[in-house]
Amino acid sequence: MISIPQQFSLLGALADITMGQSPDSSSVNSEECGLPFLQGCSEFGLQSPEAELYCMPPLRVSQAESILISVRAPVGTMNWGDQSYCIGRGLAAIKAKQGLADTKFLSYSIYQNVDFLHRRSQGSTFLAISANDLNRFPIPVYSLAQQNKISWILQTIDKAIEKTEALIEKYQQIKAGLMHDLFTRGIGADGKLRPPREQAPELYQQTPIGWIPTEWDCVKIKGYVRSVQYGISISLDDLENGIPVLRMNNIQSNMFDVSDLKYTSDLEAYKIQLKKGDILYNRTNSMEHVGKTAMWRDELPESSFASYLVRINLYEDMILPEFFSHWMSQISSQNAIRRYATPAVQQVNINPTNLQKVFISCPKGIEEQQEISKRILITHEAQLLSLWCKHNGTY
Q1: How many helices (H) and strands (E) does the chain have?
Q2: What residues does 201 pair with on adjacent strands?
Q3: pTM over 0.70
Q4: How far apart are CA 39 and CA 88, in angstroms?
Q5: What is the pLDDT of residues 43-86, one digit of tens each?
Q6: Neighbours of 29 (CB within 10 A)
Q7: Looking at the chain, which terminus has fewer C-beta neighbours within 10 angstroms, N or C?
Q8: Whether 102 contacts 144, CB under 8 Å
């Protein structure tokens, strides 16, 4: 059993800390001569760095199996040193002293309390931390055997997460391929994907967004929009008083994630409550998130939405909300939408007027829209089930 520590030790007492130093430019090369060179964290990968430059002779060297940590903005970003590196002034290397600590345990401890470093960097002229800041980093006191056990448990969890993320990536690629076929070939009267255009060119027509089935329309989004509505711009609270208010972060993977909510008792929020089938999209966000869309499926008994989201009301006799939501979420549609993004303060914006300039392809028949939406949803549910079975050891 692992006991809860009653005190802390300083990182400098448990580990050797090497601060980086910029080498002379004449010693840096791209011919793989010397050690891989890292000036800062720009070449950090998911786990370990992917260096593009080398240094001969190296000045400051991080040993293999060390923590690599950024000491300049962004402070606290970490990677695992899978080999020795020459490190520049933007990095430091941390390696546990033999017999005193476990390096992986130290990395988890730093990650858990990285705000300690953030607070110290904010007091500087520019965002940076010193060797003294690292030396004084508080590490919870456990025996070396306990550190090894904690480290082993957390690494096992990390490996399970990596496998799950790899599966998610694989399934997302499968889903993207399926959606591409459904939104370019559609489903024929026989219930199957239409043959590719190369095999049956008479089934397709050329449009501003490419070849689509002849039975489909290609119009600007505004042709299907009855009205749009901005969310509320008021202060929100963590306390569960009033009505929950959806924000940008609640739209994830073409669905709503309601695990992190804010609330308000303002009457204006109640006036714009969501109803099943409503479409919301992010109008302001970073480029990779602006335009994200989802359809409300009554995930909560009641809900409102904040000002960075826009509700789209559709002519549902012409286009189904499910179909529209799926169409908006495919990669090609997101790329088309983002071409209309305009710069904002540290973000970009896609207002409803610009959004409605984008062309959308859509079957004229509601039945085909329903079948396409059904197959996308079935694929999504199958992916979730497969991941659940894999995670629970029943796959």
Answers
A1: 10, 27
A2: none
A3: no
A4: 4
A5: 999 899 999 999 999 999 999 999 999 999 899 999 999 999 99
A6: 14
A7: N
A8: yes
